[in-house]
Amino acid sequence: MSEPRRSPDRERLLAAVERARGVAAAHAEASERLRTLAPAVVDALRSSGLFALAAPRALGGAECDPLTQVEVFEAMARADASAGWSLMISALLAAVAGGTLPDAGAREVFEGPFPTFAGLQVPTGLARRVAGGYAVEGRWAFGSGVRHAGWVFTCAVVAPEGGAPPAGPPEMISLAVPRERVVIEDTWDVAGLRGTGSEHYRIEGAFVPEALTCPFPAAPQRRGGAMYSLPFIALVAAGHVGFALGVGRRALDEIAAVAPRRIKAWPQLALGSHAAFHMDLGRAEAKLAAARAYAFDALGRMWDRARAGEALSIDDWSAIRLVQTYVTEVAAEVAGFAYRAGGGGALFAESPLQRCFRDVHAATQHIAATDDAYEFAGRARLGIAELHPMLAPRQAAGGAR
């Protein structure tokens, strides 16, 4: 029998967001000034249990399905984009690490209070084999949440033994390193998502035991249910979609609140009384609702395949990549409309409209939302698309539970 389509923890997790959202919203400006989440926000997310929402139950997680993940990340991003983004990154890295690390490594990482994670899954570091593990060095960008993380889960190329170049693609690994052994650089001075603390970070020759590593990108599933059989890009898709939907919704919330009291200089009438604004707002509502429905359809079909134990097809991959890019673009369009409609008042730092505009446009720069998703979909439609190694299915592994 396949797993239930929706998590039994859905209501509990959404209630947890409700408890944390007020703290995140109240400290949004402080997080911007600090360029990382304010300590009160981190404490609220920890105490809510939300960092554990996507990790395997065997490690203390909620093992939440992708559709519920969309709703949870959407709700937190609606309260504050930086909090929503930071929650997404930590929770999904916990899912990847929890589903794939060897048993000894998983016990070490997940013992005690539930851990927080940061890290970039792009192999810009180098790992050299040594007795019992790897000596790792390198520099990575975009370590969202690294200043409050307990672990950095990142990725490196394995140096060929003997110095000979590999005959095929290089071997790559993911690896978990305690945050204390990572050098954080002060680089996150940016336009959007300022409160995420997405600093560059370095690892300088640290020893990483074999138990804290796994193959990348197609590590074997070692524990958990159907969700952890999904390849990396599919596993994290719900996070990017939920984040974008939440910021788009917050932008429409804000412009709806501003419209009755914003008096346009010409002809001295409230924005909320203009028929043209009514039409534009209606279109924006329809666009965001349609994008949300598309997201639940595409990710629902992906989840149904995983629950049935079926491999993802080229058409599935086309939909997974399309939905992340398209929903992010729609959210950016909606936030752009709301920002422009907000007039001069939207320019000021205290306006959530400018923050929504900046934050969602920062998300459009993420690799998960790039335009080549449309190119891939076009090739898939013509029957000429090929799977990238990042889309490869996970290896089979015994002991998944």
TrEMBL record:
InterPro entries in alphabetical order: Acyl-CoA_DH_C, Acyl-CoA_Oxase/DH_mid-dom_sf, AcylCo_DH-like_C, AcylCoA_DH/ox_N, AcylCoA_DH/ox_N_sf, AcylCoA_DH/oxidase_NM_dom_sf
Acyl-CoA dehydrogenase C-terminal domain ranges (all copies): 239-369
Pfam families: Acyl-CoA_dh_2, Acyl-CoA_dh_N
Entry's Gene Ontology molecular function annotations: acyl-CoA dehydrogenase activity; flavin adenine dinucleotide binding
Alphabetical keyword list: Oxidoreductase
Domain Acyl-CoA dehydrogenase/oxidase N-terminal: residue ranges: 21-94
SUPFAM superfamilies noted in UniProt: Acyl-CoA dehydrogenase C-terminal domain-like (SSF47203), Acyl-CoA dehydrogenase NM domain-like (SSF56645)
Source organism, top-level taxon: Bacteria
Designated name of the protein: Acyl-CoA dehydrogenase
